[in-house]
Amino acid sequence: MSAGIASRETLMEALAPLQSELQKRKDDIRVKEGEFDQLRAEFERRLRERGEALLRNIDARNPLIKDAENLMREIQDKFEEWERQTQRRAEGARFREGFNDSMLVFVFGKVKSGKSSLGNYVAWGRVEPTEAQKRASKIQPTYFTAAQTDVVGGDAEKEAEKKQAFRVGATEATSSIQGFRVPGLTWVDSPGLHSVNRKNGDLAKSYVDHADLIVYAMSSQAPGRASDMQELEILLSGRKKVMVLLTGSDATEEDEDENGELVAAIVMKPAADRKRQIEHVSAELSKLGRQGDILAEVLPISARYADAHPTAQGLAESGLARFCEAMQSICAGEGVRLKLDTPMNNLRASIDKTADDVEAIRDFSRKLMDGMRAQDLKLQQELGRLGFEGQNRMRKLVRAQFEGAARGDQEAALRQAIQELALEMSGEAFEAIGEMQKKSLAAAFDGSRLARLPEYREISEDREYSVIKSGNKKKTGFWGALAGGALGFVLGGPGGAALGASLGGGVGGAAGDSAQEERRKHSVVVGDNLHERQRMAMAEYADGFPELLKEHVNRLYAQIREANQKYISGLDEDVSGLKAKLAALTKVTP
Q: Regarding predicted confidence, which is higher, 159 or 317?
């Protein structure tokens, strides 16, 4: 094999110095990961406390409870996801612990995409190495198994370790996280994505974050499929470095051997076909962005062809020479940086995901705020209707009180009536929005704004009247006339008697007093102030009822409204604070 052509052997030689370099510069970001976990834990604690306070302030029959509970579930789902992320990072740290002195290459792809065949070729230079070929190899890989599913048809427990090779050709060839180590390189073969056994695909995804480099194996039978692009988009969004291989870029043709017998011959697909596939897949990759994270060009390869043609020319035609060259270039140039960047990139990806999660929480909380505003508006509209109804009812009560009640007793009765009506209608107002806050409804109606009615009083007027006081003039005239008449009779007979009586009466009347008229005053009740009291009662108790009801209900509802607003504003502050701290954390390179 020409020295100028990269091969598995030259790749192994390039990996050896990488091991010693990585031993000198092991990356440890545990401090940053600890800070990150602490930030999230504190955020979780605060949101749990806020959520508990919110639910205490929203009654179970309030329509808002649905939005609040949905928000709590959304938050809880995020917290559980964060816990799973933390556990995966802990598992990843343990997984990586033994591989810190080598570049961790993770082979990813769908079922039957040629991952195991490629792994065997890198390990031994053969797709299905024999025991003799293994013993002849100068570099002896060390195999390991990290995890395994229990699916039917998968590889046996520690099968790769026991056989010192990956199983090739079975429908579910790989059902474990298994791999091998050589100096400077850890190669991990994963279960296939979109496996008929979901556990296999889930297991593969749980370990891929820990890779320094991902080799994505894409079958050349149908390259660039939407499902492959979706997986690659996820990998690239996680800040992973990816090399894309079009595996199985070969075909089988019939040929004659030296004896004229028909035999199957493995040939590479036509160059034109491979070129079209490269262009198609490259175009699809360009749509994903992050071109800087796609290492080397899209490479069509065939491990089977290289295995059948173990020459320099065969290796070059198989595409594996170019693959080994690209790997050597990465190891010589970016290898150390990739190794050092991987844990921090994983942390940054977790931070970015967390930032997106908390922003989603904030968006969801806005739905609760919108519901609160709608409920508040509905309450105010209901208060308008109830205020008008209460006003009319109080007017009837006022009229009834002033028409039939004893004088002066109306105020106590009206105060009792308006309190009962206000409590009744405040209950109706809350029921209209589904709110039955018993403590709030039990609050006494505050009637301090009601003016007191004037005391009942009668209205009277002072009136004059005349009193005639009688004199003694008639009495003295009578006696004078009698005396004069007697004297005149003695002197002059009957004529003298008449003249004497006349003169005696005049003298007697002159001697007596005349009668007198006297003017006096006294108060007369002409009405009362019932009309004024009724007018004031109408103004205070009836016409003022709508405003009094609104003040009473809003004072009670303010407790609920303020608690909700406090939750929303507090959550918003917590989200902004966490995002700012996360952003600062990503800027620090350990």
A: 317
Structural contact between residues 509 and 477, judged by C-beta atoms closer than 8 angstroms: yes
| Residue 209 counted as domain residue | yes
545 contacts 391 by C-beta, under 8 angstroms: yes
Banded model confidence at residue 361, pLDDT cuts 50, 70, 90: confident
Q: In this structure, are 251 and 380 located in the same domain?
A: no
Query: Which residues span the domain enclosing 299?
Result: 8-26+101-333
Could you tell me if 281 and 349 lie in one domain? no
pLDDT tens by residue, 373-404: 888 888 899 999 999 999 999 999 998 888 86
Asked if 94 and 243 sit in the same domain, the reply is no
SS (H, E, C) 180-232: EEECCEEEEECCCECCCCHHHHHHHHHHHCCCCEEEEEEECCCCCCHHHHHHH
Interstrand relation of 242-247 and 516-528 (parallel, antiparallel or unpaired) = unpaired
Residue where one domain finishes, among candidates 286, 303, 333? 333
Same domain (yes/no): 128, 187? yes
The model's confidence at residue 283, banded by pLDDT at 50, 70 and 90, is: very high
pLDDT of residue 36: 87
d(CA 149, CA 175): 6
Measured from the Cβ of residue 512, the count of other Cβ atoms closer than 10 Å reads 16
Q: Assess contact for 18 and 336: CB atoms under 8 A.
A: yes
**Single pTM value for the model:** 0.56
Going by C-alpha positions, the residue among 189, 192, 186, 156 that lies closest to residue 171 is: 192
Structure confidence by residue, pLDDT tens digits, 459-505: 777 777 676 665 555 555 555 555 555 555 555 555 555 555 555 55
Are 400 and 432 members of one domain?
yes
CA 314, CA 268: separation in Å to the nearest integer?
10
Residue 129 sits in the same domain as residue 77: no
Whether pLDDT at 260 is above 80: no
**With left for phi above 0 and alpha for psi between -120 and 50, is residue 523 left, alpha or beta?**
beta
Task: Output the CA torsion sign for 16, 17, 18, 21.
Answer: positive
In the predicted model, what is the mean pLDDT of residues 175-200? 70
Number of domains making up the chain? 3
Question: Which SS3 state, helix, strand or coil, does residue 96 take?
Answer: helix
Does 215 share its domain with 141?
Answer: yes
Nearest to 186 by CA among 339, 322, 26: 339
As a whole number of angstroms, the distance between CA 512 and CA 254 comes to 177
Instruction: Give me the CATH number covering residue 272.
Output: 3.40.50.300
Under a CB-based contact definition with an 8 Å cutoff, are residues 174 and 167 in contact? Answer: yes
Tell whether the model's pLDDT for residue 364 goes beyond 70: yes
SS3 content of the chain, % helix, strand, coil (to 5): 60, 15, 25
Confidence at 408, pLDDT banded by 50, 70, 90:
low
Question: What secondary structure letter does DSSP report for 541?
Answer: I
- Whether 232 and 293 map to the same domain: the answer is yes
DSSP conformational letter for 110: B
* Residue of higher predicted confidence among 205 and 237: 237
Last residue of a domain, one of 333, 357, 383: 333
